[in-house]
Amino acid sequence: MTKRTAPRNRTLTLSEEDCRRLQPRLVTLNRPCRLGEILGRTIHQDVMEVFDLLPEKCVDLLIADPPYNRRKTFHTITFHASEEERYRNWLEGWVSKLPRILRPAATVYVCCDWQCSQTVYTVLSRYFRMRNRITWEREKGRGAHSNWKNAHEDIWFATMSDKYTFNLDAVKVKRKVLAPYRVEGQPKDWSEETSGNYRTTHPSNLWTDVTVPFWSMQENTDHPTQKPEKLIAKLILASSNEGDVVFDPFSGSGTTSVTAKKLNRCFFSVERDGMYCLLAEKRLELAGRNPAIQGYEDGVFWERNTTPHRKKEE
Ligand SMILES: C[S@@+](CC[C@H](N)C(=O)[O-])C[C@H]1O[C@@H](n2cnc3c(N)ncnc32)[C@H](O)[C@@H]1O
Prior knowledge:
CATH superfamily: Vaccinia Virus protein VP39
Number of helices: 9
Strand order of the largest sheet: 1-15-14-2-5-7-6-13
Shape: globular
Distance between the termini: 30 Å
CATH topology: Rossmann fold
Order of helices and strands: HHEHEEEHHEHEEEEEEEEHEHEHEE
CATH architecture: 3-Layer(aba) Sandwich
Number of domains: 1
Helix content: 10-25%
Bound molecules: S-adenosylmethionine
Largest sheet: 8 strands, mixed
Low-confidence stretches: none
Radius of gyration: 20 Å
């Protein structure tokens, strides 16, 4: 039976024709590969089979959004919550493979929630220089009956060495000024624009301006833990330059690859579920036609609901 959807529902789906057309784009590795063979590609495979086949020192920026230590079904495969030690060993199994494929000035970001954040820190800090923990507001889902509603996630920021890319100007945040202060009649650190008064500020490690994809957003898919393009855009713009190689070992619906493409970075990713690989490919196809990233316009990140050329983000 065809699923009935609301008229404004823009959730991206795959038709049979999409699957046939996009399937040949997927790659599977069975021998060590050259970078040129995988750039721009989605590798359809268990990432544990892939790490040792990737070229050495080929990645400038790694963004990993692995399964968190909780029960979650990703299409046909369910990831189960386990003892902390077991999850730590699982993390160790792939984090230990990263230094070989990263360039000396590379950056690593790993997403997590409050329950596995400490474990991720423990494992990452064995291999990398820990720089910061970003916390972002994830305003989605129902509240709990006898607990605080979980409304945030973390992203650990680590680097291979003390030499790394950080493009501060590329990730400034544009905020509406509520109390415009003037000195001798002139705006102090803000500017008057036709759509209002704004201040461009340094980004902190607390992000409250990101909207989790939902049904009326163009980037939305049925992936259960899809990350917002705006969130990933901040990481990519801050920690890579145009032409750099961005790698996502747990690609899901392809948000990292899609955002990297929109921002003129090179990319490749791995995902073990075939349907998610195809969704990523469909998003990549669309990104070629429309490189817009919701909430990022005119080179700045706008607070939720303040983008001047759109009526509303939500
Ligand atoms: C948290 S989701 C990533 C979501 C993604 N950031 C997005 O925006 O769509 C984790 C993904 O990793 C995939 N995955 C889990 N274990 C894997 C493995 N061993 N190899 C490759 N992919 C794996 C799952 O199928 C799932 O789609």
